[in-house]
Each structure stands twice: as structure tokens, then as C-alpha cells.
Amino acid sequence: MPNIKSAKKRVKVTAVKTLRNKAYKSALRTSIKKAQSAVSDGAENKADAFKAAVVKIDKAVSKGILHKNTAAHKKSKLAKAFNQAQ
Q1: How many CB atoms lie within 10 A of CB 70?
Q2: Residue 12 half-sphere exposure, CB side, CA atoms within 13 Å?
Q3: Percent of the residues in the chain that have a pLDDT greater than 70, as a whole number
Q4: How far apart are the first and last CA of the chain?
Q5: The CATH homologous superfamily of the domain defined by 5-85
Q6: CA 76 → CA 8, 16, 42, 55, 65, distances in Å?
């Protein structure tokens, strides 16, 4: 446990940010899985699911949760599956 006041605050702030990032990553993975299942099943809402997943990935990059190259990789993989399904 830290002894310095600022270090104690950093521990608290880090814990809060960790929980927020964890929740956002979980929602991101869920939207990606929904898009993948919509594309593979040939659902009518596959374009909406794909678009929602791409927006979620882009927001994760802007918030610093994902690296931009990781996001590009994920979007490319989704786009490839989406285009093959059409």
C-alpha cells in the first residue's frame, strides 16, 4: 500500500479507470460477436451490426482502449467477412 498521498489517489483513480475500460472492452467484444454472427447467419440486420461494431471499435481507439493497428486489424477482418457474405 502506498504511503504518499498522491500515490494513494493514483491507486484509486487506476481502479476506477480499469473498471471502466473493462466494461467498455466487454461491450466491444459483444458487438463484434453480434456482427460476426449476423454476417455468418445472413441476417437482415448484418449491415447495421457491422456498422455498429466498426463505430464501437473506432470509439475504443479514440478513448485509448485499443491500439489503432489492432482496431484496423479487427475492422479489416469484419469487413472481409461482411463482403464475402454479400
Answers
A1: 13
A2: 6
A3: 100
A4: 56
A5: Ribosomal protein S20 (1.20.58.110)
A6: 41, 32, 19, 13, 18
- Cβ atoms within 10 Å of 42's Cβ, excluding its own: 9
Are 32 and 78 contacting, i.e. CB atoms less than 8 angstroms apart?
A: yes
C-alpha 48/C-alpha 42 separation (Å) is 12
pLDDT tens across 43-83, in order? Answer: 889 999 999 999 999 999 999 999 999 999 999 999 999 99
By CB neighbour count within 10 A (0-12 exposed, 13-18 middle, 19+ buried), where does 43 fall? middle
Q: Would you kindly state where each structural domain of the chain is located, as residue ranges?
A: 5-85
Note whether 57 and 75 are within 8 A (CB). yes
